[in-house]
Design brief:
mainly alpha; 2 domains; 8 helices; elongated
Amino acid sequence: MNERIGARVPLAHTQHDFATMLLARGEAGGRERALSLLQASLDSARKIGMRALEERAARRLDELSVAGAHDDLTARETEVLGLIAIGRSNADIATALSISLNTVATHVRNILAKTGCANRTEAAAYPIRQGLAPRA
């Protein structure tokens, strides 16, 4: 409706808010739609001169570009990351997944590289920050 009546300011806010809602839901196809809406919101905010919304939309797009790194994780790396997120040690992970300690260490190194995390603590928080952790 905002688009139909030419309400550019409310439209830019609505696009941003709708994108945020889609990301929170985590449904199939929602991420792509959210990226499109955030870009439209950012473009509108820049044209209109809405600095606060421009900064929020740009920051969210930047976060999502980093969040896209999880797509490169293998299924096993995703399992290992989930176990790291709940506080399991490498030895616990090796036992839980029936793999060697060296294999776990390799997975952890790959996870850190692919997610851009500096250490295990950041890796443990990564699924939560990126909305990958299951909801309580």
